[in-house]
Write a structure and sequence with these properties.
- The structure is a single chain.
- By secondary structure, the protein is α/β, with parallel strands linked by helices.
- It has a single domain (2-338), classed as TIM Barrel.
- The chain is 50% helix and 11% strand.
- It is built from 15 helices and nine strands.
- The strands form two sheets. The protein has a seven-stranded parallel sheet. A two-stranded antiparallel ribbon has the order 2-3.
- α9 crosses α11 (169-193) and α14 runs parallel beside α15.
- The longest helix has 25 residues, at 169-193.
- The radius of gyration is 19 Å and the shape is globular.
């Protein structure tokens, strides 16, 4: 698989490309499946439907890898938390973590087992996906999941979780440790079910100052990476801690690919990490509104990376009002401009 070869820094005939959130709302085909499912959570829990929307961008856009359709919050859901998705508000936990009793109720082994609907979706996808296309599994990073679990919803201030970080760090570490153990089992089961690579999303890494990032986020990500690499060295691991360009000098660990967000100059990422890790990214997602902007963005990244140790992607997820035509144009532009 070209994508897997690229993850390990091997020479490829062109730079492979996929997009975060590529199975999603910008595709009319996805919206039809979503409507039929009745709710976002029902869609995540229906293996056949989840498989269908995972495969759509491969067939429609020609991306080089499929990424499993699911949601990072199915993990705390199956750990025993009450999750609902509210229109206009996003995900909401009605029982956010507040006390040690709440922490003690969180389940580990049972949670991993209850995620069978994800593993079934993976088996269906892999049976239908072309053998030359990779399937990427994923999870949210412990810090990002813990933030949702403590705040109870999305947040702009991180007030509750960061208050705990400084006033009761042992409680926060307790949450992170439990989540990490579930994620190890979860990603292992994804690999056993058929994914070819995994990505760990730390969407809220930028909320942390440097010392806190390495203590409360990166430490736990690397615990997961070390666990997986010790058992599955041939499965690439992609890490995506968003918004930490100031900390790149201190990034190291047992992973293969570093996802670069759009706010981090690709030149800086190449300088700091490009000799040690393959880079993934980092096209500004809103460039997909304009074909001229797509061409400029692709050409810039190609000129910097020179087709070496790189996987093309957006610097965050594709937006729901991007046209399918422009998404296709982006994929084709990458393939054409990086052909050897």
């Amino acid at each position: 698989m070209i994508f897997i070869d690229a993850c390990f820094g091997k020479k490829t005939p062109y730079t492979p490309v996929w997009m975060m959130r590529q199975a999603g709302r910008y595709l009319p085909q996805y919206l039809k499946v979503r409507e039929k499912a009745g709710s976002f959570l029902h869609l995540c829990k229906n293996p056949e439907s989840a498989a269908e929307v995972t495969l759509q961008p491969v067939d429609i856009l020609g991306v080089d890898a499929a990424i499993l359709f699911s949601d990072i919050l199915v993990v705390p859901l199956e750990m025993g938390m009450d999750l609902r998705f509210s229109t206009g508000e996003g995900p909401i936990f009605s029982n956010p973590l507040m006390t040690k009793a709440d922490l003690d109720k969180l389940q580990i082994n049972e949670a991993a087992e209850r995620l069978e609907y994800v593993y079934k979706a993976i088996r269906i996808i892999r049976s239908k996906l072309s053998s030359d296309k990779a399937l990427i599994g994923f999870c949210g990073a412990p810090w990002t999941l813990a933030t949702y679990m403590i705040e109870g919803s999305g947040t702009k201030t991180y007030g509750k979780v960061k208050k705990l970080l400084y006033s009761n760090p042992s409680f926060l570490h307790g949450v992170l440790a439990k989540v990490t153990e579930v994620l190890k089992l979860y990603l292992e089961m994804q690999i056993k079910s058929g994914v070819n690579a995994v990505q760990i999303f730390d969407s809220w890494a930028s909320a942390l100052e440097e010392k806190a990032f390495f203590e409360f986020s990166w430490r736990y990500i690397q615990d997961i990476c070390s666990f997986l690499k010790s058992k599955y060295p041939d499965v690439p691991i992609i890490v995506f801690p968003k918004g930490i360009s100031g900390y790149l000098d201190k990034i190291e660990g047992e992973f293969d690919v570093f996802g670069v967000d759009w706010s981090t100059p690709i030149e800086l990422a190449k300088e700091k990490l490009g000799n040690r890790y393959v880079l993934q990214g980092n096209m500004e997602p809103t460039r997909l509104y304009s074909k001229r902007a797509i061409d400029e963005g692709v050409e810039h990244i190609v000129n910097v990376m020179q087709n070496k140790r790189h996987i093309f992607n957006l610097g965050h997820g594709i937006l729901p009002d991007v046209s399918v035509e422009n998404a296709k144009y982006f994929i084709n532009s990458v393939h054409e401009k990086t052909k050897i």
